[in-house]
Amino acid sequence: MNQKFDPKLLSNQGTQPGQIVITKEIIEQAEDITCINQLPKLDTRGKIIDGEFILCNGQVFTDAFRLKYVSPILSPTGKQTIGNLFIGKICLVCGKIFNPDEWVKQRDEHVKATKNTILDKENKDAKTKL
Fold it and tell me: What's the pTM value of the predicted model, to 2 decimals?
């Protein structure tokens, strides 16, 4: 597949109604998502410190599937098969399922708590430097 293609041909042509076209500008302005799962804090010997937690902050997620065995009796083809059921995204650092609603809620709470503070000013300055 060493065919050359023109990226301009991949514009909005052929997109179906309701389909989103993501451009380079959108990606550059989008906010990175980090994992918000809490992990137990460990001491220097690797033992869990009771009541203390750290945020995972993982930035790489992968699709997670639950595998299902479908017997020949239930299968539409009459043959046994394995089906997969998409269950969400999993953080590769901590292995927990990512909940987008929870992430948005925590982000909104953080923005509200830091509004008009030094942290808010630093965040705005960092975004303008990009």
Answer: 0.59
Continuous segment of H or E residues that includes residue 97? strand 97-98
CA 87/CA 64 separation, integer angstroms: 6
Could you read off the pLDDT of 21-65 as tens digits, one per residue? Answer: 888 888 888 888 888 888 888 888 889 888 888 888 899 999 999
Residue in 112, 93, 113, 89 with CA at minimum distance from that of residue 101:
89
- What is the C-alpha to C-alpha distance for residues 90 and 62, in angstroms, rounded to an integer? 5
Tokens read off for 114 = 């830091």
CA 24 to chain centre: 19
What type of residue is 99? N
Spatial contact of 94 and 39, defined as CB atoms under 8 Å apart: yes
